[in-house]
Specification:
- This protein folds into two domains: 191 residues, NAD(P)-binding Rossmann-like Domain (Rossmann fold, 3-Layer(aba) Sandwich), CATH 3.40.50; 216 residues, FAD/NAD(P)-binding domain (3-Layer(bba) Sandwich).
- The longest helix is centred in the middle third of the chain and has 15 residues.
- By secondary structure, it is α/β, with parallel strands linked by helices.
- The strands form four sheets. It has a seven-stranded mixed beta sheet with strand order 3-2-1-4-18-17-16, sandwiched between helices.
- Helix content is 32%, strand content 20%.
- Helix 1 crosses helix 3, helix 1 packs across helix 13 and helix 4 packs antiparallel against helix 14.
- It binds flavin-adenine dinucleotide and NADP nicotinamide-adenine-dinucleotide phosphate.
Length: 460
C-alpha cells in the first residue's frame, strides 16, 4: 500500500463543527501538500457556527470571515455533511472506523452557571439563550423574553455582555436592516426596557471589554452610558496593572470609562449603568425575578492575580429581567474525554488525551472546545493550524480505517434516514435567505427552523 497522504491512499479527516476553528483546520489540511479529503460534519443545516449564530447582527463587518469560509468550502476534496450531529446521528466510534483522524471543533455550546439561589427563576436567562434567539438559532426559536420589563440586569463585563447591552439599548430602527431574526425584531419593537445595569465582580481595570466595544456603548443614539466616578478610584494593584505596557487595553478601558463618568446624562430614553466590584449572591422574587441581591466586593491579590472577595455590604437592585453573561462552556460527546471543570476536551498539543494523560489515537481538537471560550474569530486560526501540524506529524502512526470516510458514512446516515446538507444544498438555502431579506433591506432573513431549511431543498 502507498504511504498515507499520497493520491492513491489519501488521508481521510472528519472535522466536527463548521465554525471558525473547523474552517481554519480544513484549510490547513487541504493546503498541507498531502493528499487529504476533508468531511466537515455540522449538526445544523447552516454552517459557520458563532459567526452566524453569535456575532451581533449590528456588527456585519465582523461576519466577513464567512466569505473566506465559503471559499474554503469550494476547495477540491472538501465536503460538508450538515444536519448531522456527532453523538446523535453518528457515534465517535463510527467516525473512527471511517476516518484516519477526527478533529473536534465543536465549540462551547452551553453556558457557565453562577451557582446562586434563584438563578433559574422565571425572567433569569443566560446570554447564550438571548444571543442565539436574536440570531435565529433553531434551538432557541421558541424561547421568549419578557421585554415588558423596564429594568434589566446583565451579569458579566465581557464583549458578549456588550453585545446584549447594544441589542437592548438600540431602537428597532437601528436594527431593522441587519440580519437579526424577524421574531426578535418584532419582540424588540415592543420593548419597554429603560434601564440596563451591567455588573462586574471586579473593578474597571479588570473589565473584559475590548476598547472598540466599550467605546461604542458610550455612543448609542438612544441610551446614555452612566458611570459613578467613585467606582473609578483604583486600588494600588489595579493602578500597577494599567501602568503595565502590555495591558494597554485595560488602561484604555479605564480612560473610556472616565469619559463616560465625565459626561452628563443627556436625557436619552434608555440608560446603561456600569457597576463594578459587585457580585450577585441571589436572585429573588415570588413567581419570577423581582430583584438581585448584590454583595460589594473588594479586590485581593497581586497585580494581574486579583480576585473578588465578597464583603458583608449588600444592596438590592430591583429588576424584571436578568441575563447571565459569564462565559460559555463545552458539552461532552460520548466517546471523547471531557474536563467538566474547564468545559473542554483535554488535549496535549492538539491531541485529545484521556484522564490519565494517554493520547487517544486519531482524535484531535481545536478552537473553543480545546482552549475554552475565549478569543476572537482570528484567534482560532493559529490554534487550528497548530493542531493540524500535530496531526500531520502523526500521519505515519494513525490507526487504519475499515472503509474510506465519505462513502461508508453516507451509507450509514442514509440508512438512518438523515438528510445531509451538502455545500450545494447550503448555497441554495443561503440564496433563498438573501432573497427573503431584500424587500426589508436586510442582508438576509434567516430560516429559523431546521424543517424550513430542509424544505428549501425540495423546492425547484
Ligand atoms: C455571542 C458571541 C459573539 C461573538 N462575537 C464575536 C465578534 O463579533 N468578533 C469576533 O472576532 N469574535 C466573536 N466571538 C468569538 C468567536 O465567535 C469565537 O472565537 C469562535 O466562534 C469560536 O470558534 P469555534 O469554531 O471554536 O466554535 P463555534 O463557532 O461555536 O463553532 C462550533 C460548531 O460546531 C457545531 N457542533 C457542536 N456540536 C456538534 C456536534 N456534536 N456535531 C456536529 N457539529 C457540532 C456547532 O453547531 C457550531 O456550528 C463571539 C462569541 C460569542 C459567544
Ligand atoms: N466584538 C467582538 O470582538 C466580540 C464579541 C463577543 C464576544 N467576543 C469574544 O468572545 C469571548 C467570550 O466573551 P464573553 O463575554 O462570553 O466572556 P469573557 O470575555 O470571558 O467575559 C466574561 C465576564 O464574566 C465575568 N464572570 C465570570 N464568572 C463570573 C461569576 N461567577 N460571577 C460574576 N461574573 C463572572 C468575568 O469576570 P472576571 O474577569 O472576574 O472573570 C467577565 O467579566 C471573548 O474572548 C470575547 O472577546 C468578541
Amino acid at each position: 500500500m502507498e504511504a498515507l497522504g499520497t493520491p492513491p491512499n489519501p488521508l481521510h479527516v472528519a472535522v466536527v463543527g463548521s465554525g471558525p476553528s473547523g474552517f481554519y483546520a480544513a484549510e490547513a489540511l487541504l493546503k498541507s501538500g498531502l493528499a487529504v479529503r476533508v468531511d466537515m460534519i455540522e449538526r445544523l443545516p447552516a454552517p459557520y457556527g458563532l459567526v452566524r449564530y453569535g456575532v451581533a447582527p449590528d456588527h456585519p463587518k465582523l461576519k466577513e470571515p464567512i466569505l473566506l469560509y465559503s471559499a474554503i468550502a469550494r476547495l477540491p476534496h472538501f465536503s460538508l455533511l450538515g444536519n448531522v450531529a456527532v453523538g446523535r446521528d453518528v457515534s465517535v466510534e463510527e467516525l473512527r472506523a471511517h476516518y484516519h483522524a477526527v478533529v473536534f471543533t465543536c465549540g462551547a455550546q452551553t453556558d457557565r452557571q453562577l451557582g446562586i439561589p434563584g438563578e433559574n427563576l422565571s425572567g433569569s436567562h443566560t446570554a447564550t439563550e438571548f444571543v442565539a434567539w436574536y440570531n435565529g438559532h433553531p434551538d432557541y426559536r421558541d424561547h421568549s423574553f419578557d421585554l415588558s420589563q423596564e429594568v434589566v440586569v446583565i451579569v458579566g463585563q465581557g464583549n458578549v455582555a456588550a453585545d446584549l447591552c447594544r441589542i437592548l439599548a438600540k431602537s428597532v430602527d437601528e436594527l431593522t436592516t441587519t440580519d437579526i431574526a424577524r421574531h426578535a425584531l418584532d419582540a424588540l419593537a415592543g420593548s419597554k426596557v429603560r434601564e440596563i445595569h451591567v455588573i462586574g465582580r471586579r473593578g474597571p481595570a479588570q473589565a473584559k471589554f475590548t476598547n472598540k466595544e466599550l467605546k461604542e456603548l458610550g455612543e448609542l443614539a438612544n441610551c446614555d452610558a452612566i458611570v459613578d466616578p467613585r467606582d473609578l478610584e483604583l486600588d494600588a494593584a489595579s493602578r500597577a496593572e494599567i501602568e503595565a505596557k502590555a495591558n494597554f487595553v485595560a488602561a484604555k478601558n479605564v480612560e473610556i470609562l472616565r469619559q463616560f463618568a465625565a459626561q452628563a446624562a443627556s436625557g436619552k430614553p434608555r440608560r446603561l449603568f456600569f457597576h463594578f466590584l459587585k457580585s450577585p449572591t441571589a436572585l429573588a422574587g415570588t413567581d419570577r425575578v423581582e430583584h438581585v441581591v448584590l454583595a460589594r466586593n473588594r479586590l485581593d491579590g497581586e497585580p494581574f492575580k486579583q480576585v473578588a472577595r465578597e464583603t458583608a455590604e449588600t444592596e438590592m437592585l430591583r429588576c424584571g429581567l436578568v441575563f447571565r453573561s459569564i462565559g460559555y462552556s463545552g458539552v461532552p460527546i460520548p466517546g471523547v474525554p471531557f474536563d467538566p471543570r474547564r468545559g473542554v476536551f483535554p488535549t496535549q498539543d492538539g491531541r485529545i488525551v484521556d484522564g490519565a494523560g494517554a493520547v487517544m489515537p486519531g482524535l484531535y481538537a481545536a478552537g473553543w472546545i480545546k482552549r475554552g471560550p475565549t478569543g476572537i474569530i482570528g484567534t482560532n486560526r493559529a490554534d487550528s493550524v497548530s493542531t493540524v501540524k500535530t496531526l500531520l506529524a502523526d500521519v505515519v502512526q494513525l490507526p487504519p480505517i475499515k472503509e474510506p470516510g465519505p462513502d461508508g458514512l453516507r451509507r450509514l446516515l442514509s440508512a438512518r434516514g438523515v438528510r445531509t446538507v451538502s455545500v450545494e444544498d447550503w448555497m441554495k438555502i443561503d440564496a433563498l435567505e438573501v432573497a427573503r431579506g431584500q424587500p426589508a433591506g436586510k442582508p438576509r432573513e434567516k430560516f429559523t427552523r431546521v424543517a424550513e431549511m430542509l424544505q428549501c431543498l425540495n423546492v425547484g
